[in-house]
# Entry
Amino acid sequence: MIEERFEQLEEKLAYIEMANAELGEEIFRQQKEIDALTKAHRTMLERIEILQDTAAEGDVEGGVGQSEKPPHY
# Structure
């Protein structure tokens, strides 16, 4: 009876250890994905800032309110 209970506890412990390892692997995978998305987000913010600066420079150089006609006009 005690030996049977001991075996049950060993099985439960093995299951918990396996689940814990799987969760650790998933957390590691998710952290890598978060890092990649954070890097992509920063890059996009930098590109937007550059585009806004370029657009603002174009407004100053071309005169505010003046816009060039597209080539098909």
Residues 31 and 37 are 10 Å apart (CA to CA).
